[in-house]
Design a protein that fits this description.
Ribosomal Protein S5, domain 2; 4-stranded mixed β-sheet; 10 strands; 34% helix
Amino acid sequence: MRRGKIERSTKETDVKVVLNLDGSGKTKIQTENDFFNHLLDSFAFHGGFDLEVYAKSKTKPENHHLIEDVGLTIGMALNKALGEKKGINRFGNAIIPMDDSLVLVSLDLSGRVYFESNLKFEYENVEGLPSQMVNHFLRSMAEGGKFNLHIVDFRGLNDHHKAEATFKALGKALSQAVKIELKHKNKIPSVKGRLKE
């Protein structure tokens, strides 16, 4: 079982994440934002990961630091669960439609951090979640997990659909990338013989 558990405490937040890459999509998500909870639930369900997230602000209920720190912590738990990364696909991508929206997520579990996104929203808030925090979460997760992450927003009119399609695509792409290839199960997926740590 590839499982990562990280507890991260700062002056602003307390975050605990337990991520099982070989799970079945079971979740226990408790943050201070209901729509964010829903997005994380969608990510884990469609990725087939078991995910527990407990996050609380220490000062007052707010979104910025909480969502940023959850992203960092999920990324760190992912990195821990992957260990030496032997046998993984390493790369993953998914194009997910949700009604009017169509979003692509492509990633490389290379050990190198890079984030690029053209995802834009019409309104400042999506179901009570500041829309700018969607990209900020994704960047933070890539930083915590040390991987390349690209988001391409092809089309969409509804902000809720855009955000949800993105998290579903993230789950699908990550599920593909962490999958163990049996014929290469003892090999590091790099011609260099190692991935950046």
